[in-house]
């Protein structure tokens, strides 16, 4: 796009002009998270499909705005949750849907990622002002897809607790150059969710403390078990599979197109290719008129945890009703 209109659009950095262009079909958003919802709504209102980085929205009100617009405009709106394309998560979700674990009664997800010297001031300022699980989608997304949330089940209730904010004030002073007194977000936030079918989900958030990276990912069923951390583990038919058996089963249950694309995809990103596969499937599905792997209701459900966890904590760690974005 080398014409004058494109040059003007990008020179002025005017998102609305970009969204109004007739030669744009998809708007791909990877700005800071506080600008995501406004940019999503701008793109949808102008008739564009949307792919947006995580979290796509930070309030329930914005989640509803995005759902309403996507429905009204009949457009795709997908959150770019690359954790859902992790090969272990994809394979075990397929196994869960096929009943290999029996009835799933419990699951776990989370985000343990010690940011340490990688903090950005804008992110710390959000933690300074807000309590709750403000980055829930890496852990919750794969679990919800495995459980069929808003497809065969739905989340009904949420309750959250946080630990004291011990580490945050020091990080705030180091990276923002300001006194950290009054820092609100705890070092660890734990959220418990319950579904209509009586399943429970534990969700953790910790970017403050030194521990190994983990998204927790567990599926607990009446006939089997899957866990990704600290190593990929499967229990089937009453016993734990060996490492070689686990690798073979995961490979067998990966969708065929993903299995075939793995080697080439690994050349393009440092997570084994999952982001490359996410983007390529996004484009292929749009070009072929197929449904997205994740829809606008996934986006809203996973992002709603940001505000709902805060409301639970500020209300004295009380249960909070979960919206039904499918009405």
Choose one word for the global shape. globular
The proportion of residues forming helix, as a percent range, comes to: 40-55%
- Order of SSEs: HHEHEHEHEHHEHEEEEEEHHHHE
**In what range is the share of β-strand residues?**
15-25%
Q: Output the number of helix runs.
A: 12
Structural class: alpha+beta
Description of the molecule:
The chain has 327 residues and is of the alpha+beta class. It contains 12 helices and 12 strands. Strand 6 and strand 7 (200-206) form a beta hairpin. The longest helix is centred in the C-terminal third of the chain and has 19 residues, at 296-314. Mean pLDDT is 94; it is low at 1-12.
Task: Summarize the structure in short.
With 327 residues, the protein is of the alpha+beta class.
Topology:
Layout: H1 4-12, H2 15-20, E1 26-29, H3 36-45, E2 49-52, H4 60-73, E3 77-79, H5 87-97, E4 104-112, H6 121-129, H7 137-147, E5 155-162, H8 168-176, E6 189-195, E7 200-206, E8 218-221, E9 224-227, E10 233-236, E11 239-240, H9 243-253, H10 256-265, H11 274-287, H12 296-314, E12 320-321
Helix pairs in contact: 3-4, 4-12, 5-7, 5-9, 6-8, 10-11
List keywords for this structure.
327 residues, alpha+beta, 9-stranded mixed β-sheet, 3-stranded parallel β-sheet, 12 helices
